[in-house]
Design goal:
Length: 213
């Protein structure tokens, strides 16, 4: 009985972390559903007319694909991190809710960026949502490491790659905001296209630093 009593708090904390993960999965599923519901349906009485309709709504379909990848990447990173989380803190729960708010806001930001006119503020709104999402996730990782909320068999350094990715993504989306006001829409989107390159370079630098250490 004494052994069970000693183990119960750890089981309870682990259960709380698991429930939070399940809640995150449910909210992400809803965000992706909302994203798909906004897709325009192609119209036309002939094949040619339907293909023209698809072409006319090309930016909406592209925005859907980009946002799907963005949300999926956020979820995947969260899933990787929380596999090692054994307990929660009040701050960690609050940061997770803030991060989830940005995921749910992404479908709306997708509609905003595909609207007509005033490109810089519309583009900036979407980019700022992603900056806040990446920044809040970086704070999530910081809280887990600082409060030692990870399992005993987890290595704190294992969180570093996701932390670097979050910081890099926040920087890329952040830089794209002033670029959208200074250049054309193409120039602003080039910042996003450069994200994989930035992440690859950051990963290599981090790998070399880890090897030399």
């Amino acid at each position: 009985m004494a052994t069970h009593a000693c183990q119960e708090p750890d089981v309870t904390r682990a259960g709380a972390a698991e429930r939070l993960t399940m809640f995150v999965d449910a909210v992400i599923a809803i965000a992706l559903t909302l994203l798909a519901l906004e897709l325009p349906v192609p119209t036309g009485d002939t094949t040619g007319a339907m293909l023209r309709s698809v072409s006319d709504h090309g930016k909406e379909y592209l925005a859907f694909a980009v946002s799907f990848v963005v949300i999926a990447a956020h979820w995947r990173a969260h899933h990787e991190i929380f596999r090692s989380v054994r307990s929660l803190s009040g701050c960690l729960v609050s940061l997770t809710l803030a991060w989830l708010f940005m995921q749910v806001l992404t479908p709306f930001a997708t509609r905003v960026i595909t609207a007509e006119g005033a490109f810089p503020p519309r583009f900036s709104f979407y980019a700022i949502v992603q900056v806040l999402a990446s920044a809040s996730f970086a704070l999530i990782i910081r809280e887990i490491r600082r409060e030692r909320l990870y399992r005993t068999d987890a290595v704190p350094e294992a969180f570093a790659p996701n932390l670097v990715r979050s910081v890099c993504l926040a920087a890329v989306f952040g830089v794209s905001v002033p670029v959208s006001f200074l250049t054309t829409g193409t120039g602003a989107y080039l910042c996003w296209i450069a994200a994989p390159v930035v992440l690859a370079v950051a990963g290599r630098v981090q790998g070399r630093a880890h090897s030399s250490a």
